[in-house]
User: Which sequence fits this backbone?
């Protein structure tokens, strides 16, 4: 993913991705039994057409990749990306066992960390309070069904 | 600003009653749809009528209710406090999606509400009655394009049943599926399709306004609000109702099942439920016990036969 | 004059205190997200969609439209004071507006933006009210083939006609179209690309995709940029009002902006950002003070700000009358209508006249509210720009996931949020537009189904697609909109188009 050292890497990588997606669509389009009926085209036609379009676009990317050197990208802070993705995954895996409040507080703290705020001992409590209030308002007042953990059961359901 | 938000939330927290849910009703659909509103109306009425102290609604959307049904049958087994809302659409969806879980994996309790399917044309259409339409189908089935709801849904099934009853090959019907009755309506009014088929309620305002003509309804008896004949009266052996039902968890004892059925009976006969029906414009087609079990078995069989005939299910 | 009667009835509906409250909530939220850089009306409506299903349909839709209008107002504040557009339709406002602020004329710049937005919003909403009924009458001659042709036109204008590269726009569009294939095909009930996962049978949720690409993608993009000091907010010196010269230079620009913005919004031609760029170009050509352009010409703020508000109102014409969304925000509002079981289109005016006219009338009221919020109360919004970035984005991500969890707390949805978020980040990094993905996802299945319906009705005869003058004409315009810009770029005239880049709203 280091674009500074391989100027045209991005265009070729995208071309590869588009071609793979296109091939997948065409394969799936061919695999569906045709039930077009009176229309003449069934549910396999659109995947084939869109897959074909993606392959044409992949070829366009190869062509432009060969002809131009891509723009230099500003340096990317991969650690920050890692913090946000970690936060999202923590929330995903802890939502059921620990409930909305704790899982979302972790996401909140990780995002703040990604944005350069390093004081976890402040970000975590702020996130907990915010997520807790959000839970009360949306689950209680707007009847949205948010996953409850021990914090929610302890306080809201007494 | 922040302080008032906190204050309001705190007040909400303190005001909330603190006891466990007696019933949890699963709506196997996203919030806002027909099953969801049925589940929420049931929940509110059960609490208001004192049948249950607290009722929670849980949404598990997906694939005509089959995602929710699969989750319900595995997680709720043996738990008499769990209910699921469903309907005729689910019968078709189980078959077309080749769902591993069917209505046999839950304990159907009762049919609650229902609606007839109506067959209608634009007022400017040359077709005057249902027999003319059927004659056209017999002559050239492809020339009659039917605009209705989603493929394999109750509208499509009704067309298949009508074709079969009229002696037309059901695989030859030219059914044009729309996302819903509303979208089909524009195509019918604009004479883009030959004939429309959808819930009677979708057509009635247009029929009253004189811009559409109702040719027939699908139920055994005439439907309130229109004097269109039933398909049975017109000589076609078709009886379809798009109903909604409530089912309990699988693996209940007879006593548990009877207790749930008694609570549902109390709900349906309550004044609060009658008010809900009137408010939402739902028709009461309550049917429970052995009658409902028999009716359901019959419909599942007929539906799977017609879906095979149409070619939607192998 | 029937529209006038309906509009009066609508005003009576809209005066309901609860609906007024929803409108106020909408315009306040809209101004807020307009002011905050990085989040726009499309994202806000997507976030609120799941939590409003239990509320009154009319109220919720009025709130959504209020957010859309409010976003157009609020965006200008950030452009002028921060030189960072609050949302994409205000990019051009930053050119002259920020120069005015630097020269200590931030007050007049904010005033001409707010009053211009008001004038344009008012005129364009009235135009919407008077044009919509005629479009509705016309709409009944729209069958599947005409809709298909119209959608082809929308695809081309959203993805390929503007921006610096047709290839990038089309790539975004085709990714959206590919995602749209996932799930059950509406016409045969067959499953496509679900790979045995029942959670995918209903396809990819528009709200999940929009929230992922706009909120998560934007958060990743901002976090990954290493920036030194926070950007500086210019203080407003003096009062937020205009001199007589400012007035006389602004009013023509407002009217021209409205005249450019409304049709651009009403035709499937890409929405508010394009309108604001075209208006800027027009003002630059027509001005009596060409020397001031680039150094803080008030016309360069007045015109584009009027144009983007007029375009927002224009977007509602195809959305309400044909059910056709032409911008990401409109696409998500369409999902909002469907959530309440309402299908925008010609029949909405027949089946739910109270709601439609109440909505249109509410927009007139919302416009007045916005003028108050953005002139006397402007200083409150400026305070919003002081919120530290880390709290802002942490909060945005919390709310972004809340919506998804609340509707369907399935791991499959949350995984999608992460994956599409990363995709949105990559697309921002490499300058691929986001809006075509969202529009492709929502319009893709519609276009496919209309095509197959048209062919089914014609029993497989492809010439049916060009059998009416309307469908043939629309397809021809779509083909021209694809080919002409490509030729312009090939002949080195692409600079004009790349300025007019359509982005997220």
Assistant:
């Amino acid at each position: 993913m280091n674009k500074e050292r391989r100027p045209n890497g991005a265009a070729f990588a995208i071309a590869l991705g588009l071609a793979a997606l296109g091939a997948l669509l065409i394969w799936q389009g061919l695999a569906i039994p045709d039930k077009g009926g009176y229309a003449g085209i069934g549910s396999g036609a659109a995947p084939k057409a869109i897959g074909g379009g993606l392959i044409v676009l992949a070829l366009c990317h190869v062509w432009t990749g060969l002809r131009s050197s891509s723009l230099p990208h500003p340096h990317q802070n991969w650690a920050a990306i890692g913090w946000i993705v970690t936060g999202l995954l923590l929330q995903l895996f802890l939502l059921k066992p620990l409930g909305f409040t704790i899982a979302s507080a972790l996401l909140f703290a990780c995002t703040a960390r990604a944005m350069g705020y390093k004081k976890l001992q402040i970000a975590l409590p702020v996130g907990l309070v915010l997520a807790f209030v959000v839970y009360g308002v949306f689950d209680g007042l707007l009847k949205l069904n948010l996953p409850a953990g021990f914090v929610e059961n302890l306080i809201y359901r007494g | 600003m922040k302080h008032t938000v906190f204050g309001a939330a705190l007040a909400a927290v303190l005001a909330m009653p603190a006891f466990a849910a007696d019933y949890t009703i699963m709506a196997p659909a996203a919030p806002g749809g027909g099953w969801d509103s049925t589940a929420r109306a049931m929940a509110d009425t059960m609490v208001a009528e004192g049948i249950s102290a607290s009722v929670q609604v849980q949404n598990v959307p997906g694939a005509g209710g089959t995602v929710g049904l699969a989750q319900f049958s595995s997680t709720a087994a043996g738990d008499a406090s769990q209910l699921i809302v469903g309907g005729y659409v689910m019968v078709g969806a189980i078959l077309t999606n080749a769902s591993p879980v069917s209505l046999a994996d839950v304990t159907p309790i009762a049919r609650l509400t229902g609606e007839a399917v109506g067959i209608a044309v634009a007022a400017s259409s040359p077709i005057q009655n249902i027999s003319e339409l059927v004659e056209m189908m017999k002559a050239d089935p492809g020339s009659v394009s039917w605009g209705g709801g989603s493929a394999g849904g109750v509208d499509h099934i009704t067309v298949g049943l009508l074709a079969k009853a009229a002696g037309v090959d059901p695989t030859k019907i030219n059914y044009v599926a729309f996302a819903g009755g509303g979208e089909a309506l524009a195509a019918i009014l604009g004479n883009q399709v030959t004939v429309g088929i959808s819930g009677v309620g979708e057509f009635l305002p247009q029929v009253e306004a004189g811009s559409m003509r109702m040719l027939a309804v699908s139920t055994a008896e005439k439907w309130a609000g229109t004097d269109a004949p039933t398909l049975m009266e017109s000589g076609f052996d078709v009886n379809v109702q798009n109903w909604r039902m409530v089912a309990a968890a699988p693996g209940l004892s007879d006593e548990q099942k009877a207790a749930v059925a008694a609570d549902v009976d109390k709900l349906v006969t309550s004044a609060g439920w009658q008010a809900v029906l009137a408010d939402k414009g739902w028709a009461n087609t309550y049917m429970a016990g052995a009658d409902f079990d028999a009716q359901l078995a019959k419909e599942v069989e007929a539906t799977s036969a017609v879906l095979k005939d149409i070619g939607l299910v192998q | 004059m029937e529209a006038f009667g309906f509009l009066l009835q609508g005003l009576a509906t809209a005066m309901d205190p609860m609906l007024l409250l929803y409108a106020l909530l909408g315009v306040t939220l809209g101004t807020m997200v307009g002011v905050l850089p990085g989040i726009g009306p499309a994202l806000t409506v997507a976030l609120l969609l799941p939590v409003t299903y239990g509320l009154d349909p009319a109220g919720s839709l009025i709130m959504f439209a209020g957010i859309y209008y409010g976003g157009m107002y609020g965006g200008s504040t950030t452009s002028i004071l921060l030189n960072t557009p609050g949302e994409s339709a205000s990019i051009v406002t930053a050119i002259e507006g920020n120069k005015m602020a630097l020269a200590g004329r931030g007050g007049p710049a904010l005033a001409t933006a707010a009053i211009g937005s008001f004038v344009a919003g008012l005129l364009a909403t009235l135009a919407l009210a008077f044009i919509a009924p005629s479009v509705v009458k016309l709409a009944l001659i729209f069958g599947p083939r005409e809709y298909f042709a119209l959608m082809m036109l929308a695809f081309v204008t959203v993805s390929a006609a503007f921006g610096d590269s047709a290839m990038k726009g089309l790539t975004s569009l085709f990714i959206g179209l590919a995602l749209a294939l996932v799930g059950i095909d509406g016409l045969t009930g067959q499953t496509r690309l679900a790979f045995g996962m029942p959670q995918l049978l209903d396809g990819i949720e528009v709200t999940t995709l929009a929230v992922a690409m706009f909120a998560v993608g934007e958060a990743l993009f901002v976090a990954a940029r290493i920036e030194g000091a926070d950007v500086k907010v210019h203080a407003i010196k003096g009062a937020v009002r205009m001199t007589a010269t400012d007035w006389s230079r602004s009013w023509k620009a407002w009217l021209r902006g409205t005249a450019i913005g409304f049709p651009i919004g009403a035709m499937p031609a890409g929405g508010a950002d394009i309108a604001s760029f075209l208006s800027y170009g027009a003002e630059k050509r027509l001005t009596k003070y060409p020397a001031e352009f680039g150094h803080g010409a008030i016309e360069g703020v007045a015109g584009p700000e009027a144009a983007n508000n007029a375009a927002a109102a224009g977007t509602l014409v195809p959305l309400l009358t044909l059910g056709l969304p032409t911008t990401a925000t409109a696409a998500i509002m369409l999902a909002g209508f469907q959530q309440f079981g309402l299908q925008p289109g010609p029949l909405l005016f027949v089946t739910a006249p109270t709601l439609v006219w109440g909505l249109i009338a509410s927009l007139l009221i919302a416009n007045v509210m916005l003028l108050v919020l953005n002139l006397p109360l402007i200083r409150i919004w400026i305070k919003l720009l002081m919120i530290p970035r880390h709290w802002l984005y942490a909060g945005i991500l919390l709310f972004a996931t809340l919506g998804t969890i609340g509707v369907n707390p399935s791991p499959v949805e949350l995984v999608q949020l992460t994956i599409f978020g990363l995709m949105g980040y990559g697309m921002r990094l490499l300058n691929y537009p986001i809006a075509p993905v969202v529009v492709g996802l929502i319009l893709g299945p519609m276009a496919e189904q209309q095509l197959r319906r048209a062919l089914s009705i014609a029993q497989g005869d492809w010439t049916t697609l060009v059998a009416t003058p309307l469908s043939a004409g629309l397809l021809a315009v779509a083909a021209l909109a694809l080919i002409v810009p490509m030729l312009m770029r090939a002949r080195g005239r692409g600079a004009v188009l790349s300025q007019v880049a359509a982005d997220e709203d």
In short: The longest strand of chain C covers residues 183-184. Chain C touches chain A through 60 residues (CB under 8 Å). Residues 501-505 of chain C have pLDDT under 50 and may be disordered. The beta strands of chain C are 183-184, 191-192.
